[in-house]
Design a protein that fits this description.
It is a peripheral membrane protein. Keywords: Cytoplasm, Endosome, Lipid-binding, Membrane, Protein transport, Transport. The chain is of the alpha+beta class and 70 residues long. The protein has one domain (10-67): Phox-like domain (PX Domain). The protein has one helix at residues 53-66, and strands spanning 10-20, 28-37, 46-52. The longest helix has 14 residues, at 53-66.
Length: 70
């Protein structure tokens, strides 16, 4: 017997890079991250934030570090 189960989907878009403090010694690039999900694990179904490139580097390192424990 097949269950009538709704498929949960998550969409993440990284877009709209912007240079902040352009021309100064502390300039950096940030990106708009948009998330939309139908997952019941999230209370908010949509979210939009801006994050710096270095935060992506940190996330990658954390994922690599934890990959062996998954």
């Amino acid at each position: 017997m097949l269950e009538n189960r709704e498929e949960e989907l998550t969409t993440v878009r990284v877009q709209d890079p912007r240079v902040q403090n352009e021309g100064s010694w502390n300039s950096y690039v940030d990106y708009k991250i948009f998330l939309h999900t139908t997952s019941k694990a999230f209370t908010a179904k949509t979210s939009c934030v801006r994050r710096r490139y270095r935060e992506f580097v940190w996330l990658r390192r954390q994922l690599q570090r934890n990959a062996g424990s998954v």
